[in-house]
Write a structure and sequence with these properties.
5-stranded parallel β-sheet; globular; 3-stranded antiparallel β-sheet; Rossmann fold; 3 domains; Helicase, Ruva Protein, domain 3; alpha/beta; Arc Repressor Mutant, subunit A; 404 residues
């Protein structure tokens, strides 16, 4: 098959040629935008799921929907080593400019508030040249969103931005990827701000995406966060959607898959969108002709697995220290042992008791806390319930067991 015409796109956050299985989320968000635009009460949105299920792709698709609705939009990616002020200011700067508000003085005032909010991030006594400038020409507005209390400042900031959007009958949507990596104080402030703007019926919505434990992070910050956000779990694709993700791009290039090929592809990928793209690319490049057969999938499987081992699994494994890798391998072995014994059902994400990991390593659970906590912070594992731990990456346990 001609590799130049290969339609599949296994990239981080790269939109696949066919965004299959996400119609419900897109339709729901369209309704959210329209309701907020009409002054109706609505909640902000949080997407959760494992790595490789397409959260970032969906987040970008939702942003595109907001742009089509003529909203102002901005996006940021949370990082454990960065506080919220600077990236949020940059995102809001973009959003305010997209609104196209006709009153220059009003726009400059709000941009001045955004600037004061950003510059409050500088340490006390910092010289002018040490203060971060978000590229805003308007002068900073003193006494607004610059108290130093992130919760107070964020409420004031989003209130002013929301008021500007309401003036022109539009809204502002802020998209936050890797939301679980926000600093605890910033999470609390964001929840409080979302609560405040919702009560004030201001046209501002926050759309976050993160790992499965993100709801627990939000709940630990503010108890009312369970009612503050509309949660959507983004999971692997069902069989029909997975087949559509493969077939539609192929048909655009006058190619197709046989039934046994589709069955083999679903068995190999488990319906995970990133794996579908990785396998699709490898199979296309190695298949001699259309239609692609089950035999072609078998031939291409080692190539796809090799690519995943380096770019998807290996890059994450390399981030772990030797002690952390030992913990990861023990998790994989415990999961395999549970499956072999059949005494309890191993769930889809291969979550295992932390006590069993410690027992396998011959260590006390407390002595393994540093490794476990480090892996949690690196986003390689997560705790969905007390006393259990799971990989954030699907099929990671299988990868580790294959490494020996």
């Amino acid at each position: 098959m001609d590799p130049i015409r290969n339609p599949y796109a296994p990239g981080a956050g790269q939109r696949p040629p066919e965004l299959a299985g996400r119609d419900a989320e897109l339709q729901t968000f369209t309704i959210v935008l329209e309701r907020i635009s009409r002054g109706r009460p609505e909640r902000s949105v949080v997407l959760t799921g494992l790595r490789g299920v397409g959260k970032t792709v969906l987040l970008n698709a939702l942003r595109s929907a907001a742009v089509r609705a003529h909203w102002g939009t901005g996006k940021l990616e949370a990082r454990p080593d960065q506080r919220l002020r600077r990236p949020l200011s940059a995102a809001l700067h973009t959003a305010v400019r997209e609104l196209g508000h006709p009153q220059t003085d009003d726009v400059d005032h709000v941009l001045g508030v955004v600037k004061s909010f950003a510059q409050r991030d500088a340490p006390a006594g910092a010289k002018l040249r040490e203060r971060w400038n978000p590229g805003i020409d308007a002068p900073a507005v003193s006494g607004r969103a610059d108290s130093g209390d992130i919760e107070i400042d964020l409420v004031e900031l989003l209130s002013d931005v929301g008021g500007l959007a309401a003036d022109v009958g539009k809204g502002v949507a802020i998209f936050i990827d890797e939301m679980q990596d926000l600093h605890p104080e910033d999470v609390s402030a964001l929840c409080a701000a979302c609560h405040e703007i919702s009560q004030a019926a201001l046209p501002v919505v926050v759309v976050g995406a993160g790992l499965p434990h993100l709801p627990a992070v939000l709940s630990a910050s503010k108890s009312y966060s369970e009612r503050l956000f509309r949660y959507a779990r983004i999971d692997r694709l069902p069989r029909d959607a997975a087949e559509r993700a493969l077939q539609m791009p192929a048909k655009e290039e006058d190619a197709d898959f046989t039934e046994d090929a589709l069955e083999a592809m679903y068995s190999a990928t488990g319906g995970y969108p990133y794996f579908i793209q990785a396998y699709g690319k490898a199979v296309w490049d190695l298949a001699p002709r259309t239609p692609i057969t089950g035999e072609d999938v078998g031939v291409a499987a080692p190539e796809a697995e090799s690519e995943l081992a380096v770019g998807f699994f290996g890059s994450r494994y390399e981030r772990a220290t030797p002690g952390e890798r030992e913990y990861l391998r023990a998790m994989a072995d415990v999961a395999a042992d549970i499956a072999a014994k059949g005494e309890e059902e191993l769930d889809e994400i291969e979550s295992v008791p932390t006590s069993d990991v410690a027992k396998l390593l011959g260590r006390k659970p407390q002595s393994l806390s540093p490794a476990r906590d480090a892996l949690l912070k690196k986003g390689l594992i997560y705790s969905g319930e007390r006393g259990r731990i799971a990989f954030t990456v699907p099929h990671f346990g299988r990868y580790l067991r294959q490494q020996g």
